[in-house]
TrEMBL record:
Residues 134-287 form the SET domain. Pfam families: SET. This is SET domain-containing protein.
């Protein structure tokens, strides 16, 4: 899962200023504003969903020619807290999209480039091209159901897939409406998708084996196969968004692929973070990979209802304890790197240890973070070439994990271009040697 995390690096011009975004929260994993949805699941057995699917099948075309929506409705709630389904069957070369939100926010969506400039999302969803041969194939995976495996060797950094959003649900709807009404809007949103797209969503796993109404099934599908997305509206709620293709990827605490969301194209991108051999399963992490063994097991059981079967979690106890010790040391070292006082113990050698710990833990999806720390520390003591080496590695590992717009990637590109002009140049040395403007005798 992804959230905004931990690398806080100060600017040279103002030593206390944070210039790099966080990437690993203490709780859930949500880099690049994208994280597997934590929407509270309803008690399906006790639900009183009394309204039928047909009751909410009312759909009507929006006659406003300037609007991107081909259908608007149903709408539920009071005037000030009204939520509607806004659907476009033409979005992204006919892939389509449905959004559950307030009228005002729907109007804002209609003005952004993915809706106003069709060329921006043209050919993003390669699966719509009948001549496209994906680098993966869908197969039955023992003990996991359906999963994706590599159809060819995939190198680190290679793009595996990219897809625009299917269904977006404004979290504000859960505060404004009753759960039955929320489920009705969600079901309508899915039903308004083009037929092939709707089938992709409905064929996802609910992770439970029980009889459910149509509304309940859709609710469960969205809750267990969605990601949290921030549309950068400071006055709005976060959306949880469904991308059915990536949801076919199974979990691994040490995955070989990672993903990030590009708000400019409303696209979820998946890239390899290490070499994936032909026939090897392609996996992503559903949770924060920095959690301890016990916490990872508990989180997966609580949210997805399955015990983790990845190689890391199946190790013997003494191996798991050693892994937990490494993770704890990483967390302790982070504190040192974030300390820019004269008392800080952070050194380039500590940065090299950080890189080694990430390698030992097989944290391929987070290696850009370790190289970023090392680059800053080497530059901070006036070693530009070692700093540049790690900056280049940080960018290489960061692009497939967090994308080109991530602040850490941008910072490392700047350092690699000219380490002498980067704010971190000689930062540690100048601090420890108390360099700077001397106080006058009268001060």
């Amino acid at each position: 899962m992804k959230a905004a995390g931990v690398i806080g690096l100060c600017a040279a011009a103002a030593y206390a200023q944070d210039t790099i975004q966080n990437h690993i929260p203490s709780g859930d994993f949500c880099r690049s504003s994208a994280l597997l949805s934590q929407k509270t699941l309803p008690d399906l057995a006790g639900s009183t969903c009394s309204r039928s699917h047909d009751h909410y099948a009312t759909q009507y075309a929006n006659n406003n020619s300037s609007s991107p929506w081909t259908h608007v409705g149903p709408c539920l709630g009071q005037q000030d807290e009204k939520f509607c389904v806004y659907s476009s069957k033409t979005f992204a070369d006919g892939r389509g999209i449905s959004i559950v939100t307030r009228p005002g926010r729907a109007e804002q969506f209609g003005t952004i480039e993915p809706f106003t400039n069709p060329d921006l999302t043209r050919h993003v969803n390669r699966d719509l091209d009948p001549d496209y041969e994906p680098v993966y194939k869908s197969v039955k995976v023992p003990g996991k159901g359906i999963g994706l495996v590599a159809a060819k060797t995939i190198e680190r950094g290679d793009r595996i897939m990219g897809n625009t959003a299917s269904v977006m649900v404004d979290y504000g709807v859960f505060e404004a409406l009753k759960i039955d009404d929320v489920m009705a809007l969600q079901a309508a949103a899915v039903d308004l998708l083009p037929h092939r797209h709707r089938a992709l969503v409905m064929n996802l796993s609910t992770h439970v084996d029980m009889e459910m109404t149509h509304h309940q099934k859709v609710d469960r599908l969205l809750a267990t196969n969605s990601f949290d997305i921030d549309d950068h509206d400071p006055d709005g709620d976060v959306f949880y968004v469904t991308f059915p293709e990536i949801s076919r990827m199974n979990h691994d605490c040490r995955p070989n692929a990672d993903y990030y969301y590009d708000p400019e194209t409303m696209t979820h991108n998946v890239h390899a973070v290490r070499r994936i051999n032909i026939g090897e399963e392609i996996t992503v992490s559903y949770i924060d990979p920095m959690q301890s063994h016990a916490d990872r097991i508990a989180r997966l059981n609580r949210s997805w209802g399955f015990p983790c079967g990845c190689s890391l979690c199946q190790q013997k106890d003494h191996v798991s304890r050693e892994s937990d010790d490494r993770l704890n040391q990483i967390l302790e070292l982070r504190k040192e790197f974030h300390d820019y006082s004269t008392a800080s113990r952070a050194t380039p050698q500590m940065g090299e240890l950080m890189v080694s710990l990430y390698d030992q833990e097989r944290l391929d999806l987070l290696k850009y973070e370790a190289h970023t720390y090392a680059a800053i520390e080497w530059n901070g003591v006036g070693e530009p070439w070692l700093a540049t080496k790690h900056a280049r590695l940080a960018v290489e590992h960061g692009l497939p994990s967090v994308g080109p717009a991530d602040n850490d990637v941008i910072e490392m590109q700047a350092l690699a271009k000219d380490p002498y002009k980067h704010w971190s140049w000689m930062l540690r040395t100048s601090k420890r040697m108390s360099w700077g403007k001397k106080a006058s005798a009268s001060e």
